[in-house]
Amino acid sequence: MKEIVLFLLLACSVNVFAQEKLHITGKITGIDNNVKLTLESDFKKKEFQLKDGVIDVEMQLTTVPSLVFMMFEEEGDYKYTTFFVGNENIVLNGSKSDFPNNIKADNSKYDHLRYQEYLMTKGLNEEIDRLSGEARTLVQNGASRDSIYQLYMSDVEPLGKIKMAMKEIDQKTFEFVKEYINTDYGRYLLRYSMRQFSVDQLKDLINTVDTKYKETTEIVFIQSIVNSKPLVVGDSYYDFTAEDINAKQVKFSDYFKGKYVLLDFSTLHCGFCQEAVPKTIKVAEALKEKLTYVTYYVDYDMEGIKEYYQLKENKGHLIWNKKGRLEPIIAMYRQDATPRYLLFNPKGKLIKEFIGLEEDFEVQLNELMR
After folding, report:
1. CA-to-CA distance for 134 and 75, rounded, in angstroms?
2. pTM of the model
């Protein structure tokens, strides 16, 4: 009897272990056998190939559930599709023409809502593509760019044609998130759509959250937005704790020691950030007598963090937090673009915000610090 129980326990443990990976099977037609495909999630990648369209690949997901990208290159153009799945067995059946996003992950516990949301906005997104092509054609045929922009992209009433479609998508997305905010996908979608919503809409969403989800990362994040206000020139910085390159906990306020402080939001996964690094290193070195330069790395990706610090020639301050872009301080600083630079005076008052690195960055900093 003991041997039988032990066998059953082992069988169960093997089954649990097997489910610790995402296993994808099925068939995707239209892609040649020699084409390399990539699965990507949370900065992890897995390359594979199909065999006469048959797919059989495994990948361990760090965050469960999460969005998984499947990509391949064709004639210099990248094609992709996405799934919202966990470490589970799923089946994909479709064709190359279904990229992007028109393939549902069968047997998944999570992907049905992702697919439902895709279908909900599919027609409007196709309309935006059609209108964009229409606008380009008119410009190519000699129409005034300003008049075309007004007709298609105006933010004031009457809204431009494309803006009207975008506004309708935002409203449908808000209603979808509100209905499904107590699901994993509803909260996941909230991460990427919250900046489309007003503070009143965010408050409305918080009020619909079940008590057991109040402390989830996404809800704590939007609560931080609701409880804070955007910084404007003259405001004091928001203090926060982060981890530095030596795995030591530091406070942002510790960097204010009689000097100006430049807070830089960047990541390795931003081409403009990589381009800016050699220039900002020189600026920081030139102004080090009166300026402390602090880079806040917005992602939690240890390999990326190490590589980015090497780009900085292992100089200066580099800090981050484990919740990455969902850290509450990211919400409080309304951080949604990289690279972004905030200059504070020695008393911690905001002097200026820079979105992107400007050509005369050092000159402007010098002028501002006089």
Report:
1. 25
2. 0.82
